[in-house]
Amino acid sequence: MSDSRTALTQESRVGPPPQRANGRSRRLSAWDPEDEAAWKAGNERVARRNLIVSILSEHVGFSIWSMWSVLVLFMSPRTGHAFTADQKFLLVLVPTLVGAVLRLPYSYAVTRFGGRNWTVFASILLFVPAVLTLWFVHRPGTPLWVFLLVGATAGVGGGNFASSMTNITAFYPQRLQGWALGLNAGGGNLGVAVVQLVGLLVISTAGDTHPAYVAAGYLPLIALCAVLAALFMDNIDTVRTHPRAQREAVRVGDTWWISVLYLGTFGSFIGYGFAFGIVLQSQFGASPLEAAQLTFLGPLLGSLSRPLGGRLADRWGGARVTLLTFVGMAGGTGVLLVASARDSLGLFLAGFTALFVLSGLGNGSTYKMIPAVFARKAQGEITAGGDAVEAFARARTLSGAVIAIAGAVGALGGVGINLTFRTSYSASGGGEAAFWTFLGFYALCVVVVRVVYLSADRGRAALDEESRMSAGQAGTRSHA
Length: 480
Fold this sequence. Notes:
By secondary structure, this protein is mainly alpha-helical. The chain contains 19 helices and three strands. Helix 5 (115-125) runs antiparallel to helix 10 and helix 14 packs across helix 19.
């Protein structure tokens, strides 16, 4: 394995940093992140510059995507929007669904139009949900269907994650992708917490009758993202669409097993982030201010724990960390059931906070499983007499395709969370039925990890492969 990886590294060309073929379009030619000489000579600075702007763009996109989790806290008879809990869950469900559906086309768009060009366009597109929200949210009596359409436009912010991750993957060498993608994803996930902090700031200073201020606050940030992307990001002419990659990936069983796991981790993070405020209002009668004061902490901790999940997976293996994560999430859900039975707000908050932190850890560890799984497959091809360079190149291509597919499926988990809550509160007025459903799904994920990735015959090979990869990455980083 180590000899194959060394051969793959030595295959890289040694030469000067890539030049822009067209200054106006900021297009990089001959980009090779695995070329260590070029990386040290200037490519690292180029990649870092693109990463910084990408994080900001994805962060604002996530904030717009999750904005309705805050806006529903304002909706009451005082603002002329007397929606029920059932209707509020529907309002946060729609942007979640649209964002999930857009992830695959957004991922493709980067390879078709270029990372810089698409980031500029995607940033400008965020004006649509922000302006529409600003226009309609302060108009009393606006019907639910109008808000559902406006909320659907906020789904474009959810697509930004896929395009941003696909773009940054192309800028960084394999040995640094875990770090770069962790920062990129974590910075984006923080948008969920930040928009809730913005909502808290508005409610605590202007009161709970001015939801339009939340949308207005993001208008200059959207403009800033578009300008920075136009000025400081680059397109890479060597990034090409692999039309067969996703078709091949959907025929691989690991694609769907990993997607199920990401459905449980990221789906829980985004679903709970969107629904938590409504749950507090419905189950404990929290006021808008009380709900806003309590909702931001969980998404904040979950965002910060995502890079930690990747680092733990580097050390102990992604499958093992993911297994422990789901065991912990099952335990956290049990705490919610006890808290609901005792009507204990403190215990309820503790259980939900644990779920946010654990889902963040699981996001990082599950994503780290993807390259390890396909590297193991590549090693099997080499053992059978295949070419090492071709095998690992194919593994990287399939890994990228699975990241896009799993990201889209994972976001659909947020839809499932909100649908389950909506059904539970509509039927019984409480969340107990939803919590039992989540507990059953986490138990299923435990079984999947245990049987598929940690079984006696397959698990040892997977963990050994991850250990070798982690050791190689750690050695490379120590010499960087």
